[in-house]
Every structure is written in structure tokens, then in C-alpha cells.
From TrEMBL:
One of its GO terms (molecular function) is ITP diphosphatase activity. The lineage of its organism: Archaea, Thermoproteota, Thermoprotei, Sulfolobales, Sulfolobaceae. The keyword Iron does not apply. SUPFAM superfamilies: ITPase-like. This is dITP/XTP pyrophosphatase. Its EC number is 3.6.1.66. It comes from the Archaea. Its cofactor is Mg(2+). Belongs to the HAM1 NTPase family. InterPro entries: dITP/XTP_pyrophosphatase (IPR020922), ITPase-like_fam (IPR029001), RdgB/HAM1 (IPR002637). Keywords: Hydrolase, Magnesium, Metal-binding, Nucleotide metabolism, Nucleotide-binding. It catalyses: dITP + H2O = dIMP + diphosphate + H(+); XTP + H2O = XMP + diphosphate + H(+); ITP + H2O = IMP + diphosphate + H(+). It holds the Pfam family Ham1p_like.
Amino acid sequence: MSKREEKGVNSNDKLLLVTSNENKFREISEVAKSYGIKIEWLNIPKFEIQADNLEEIVRYSAITIYQVIRKPLIVEDSGLFINALNGFPGPYTNYVRRKLGLEGILKLLNNVEDRSAYFKTVMCYVSDKEINLFTGVVNGRISERIRGEKGFGFDPIFIPENEERTFAEMSTEEKNKYSHRAKAFMSFLNYYMRENRKT
């Protein structure tokens, strides 16, 4: 019996994930499989606003897309927060990755002793009944150099707590044991299945 059957989720329910990032879809799908849930992928860009926190960004995006397609959906946004840089790049992570890249972040931390950082994901679930946010955080540190060929984004320079490998040196299954994104999605799934028990 799957976790879905144990929890009594309605088999007619479908989860729609909005993202233009195939890697994010794969990671989330891997977690969903263990719950016996299939995720449908809506491959479109998020409608993003400039804001200083992930919650505001993802909430706006999810509501905007829901108003167009009128189907229950999930939108996520993630950020890398580096303590020595006062939380930078945070909600600007994707932009900074495109403009500075991995090498740019490593240069900013050149000769910096405190390399502690954390990844944070915020997911927003919107339906005709509700708007809810779910958060996942993983603490770790920035590596001294780029390591690994798996993963995406800043994975090659982020080492989660209690590990010596970067995310980019792990398989998707291994990464999901630590991942901020997996934590946020599992938090959502636990809520979703509680709220959708069969009567």
C-alpha cells in the first residue's frame, strides 16, 4: 500500500507543478513517487516580481497563474542565502547565477572564513479554496571550489550539513535526503494528504 492509499487521497486529484526548470520538476517528481502521486508539469516561466523575500514572490506568481488556468497548482521559488554576504543573493539567486555565476560567488568569498549558508525553498499551493505556503531549509556551507557535474544552479558549490560532498556530487535521490526543495514539497504533501482523506 502506498502512502497515498494509507492517507486516503482522492485518486481523481491531480497536482500541477508550474516551472520552466526541468531539473526542479525531476526532483519534485522523485519525491512524489514515494507517495504514489504523479506530478503534472506545466512548463511555463513564473510571473515574478521584485521583492526582498521568497514568500511574496512565489505567492504573487502562483495567484497570477491560477487566475489564468483556474486549476489547482504549485509554484516554488528557491534562494541561496550566504551569511557572510548578509543573506545575498537570497531572492535574487537566479539573477545572480546568470550574471555572476558560480565563479563570481566564490570570488566574493575569497579569503572569507565564514562560509556558512543555507538554501531555502517556498512553495505556494493555490486552489479554488485556499492559498498556502510551505517552506524547506537546508543549512550548509559554500565549498572552496566548484565540484560535481550533477544537479543545477549553485549545487556545485553548496555542501549540506553532515556531508562532505556538494549537491552536484550527489544523485537526485541522495540530494533529496537533504534538499530544501524536497523538505518543502514533503511538508506540502503531508498537508495535502491530510486535507484530502476519503470520507
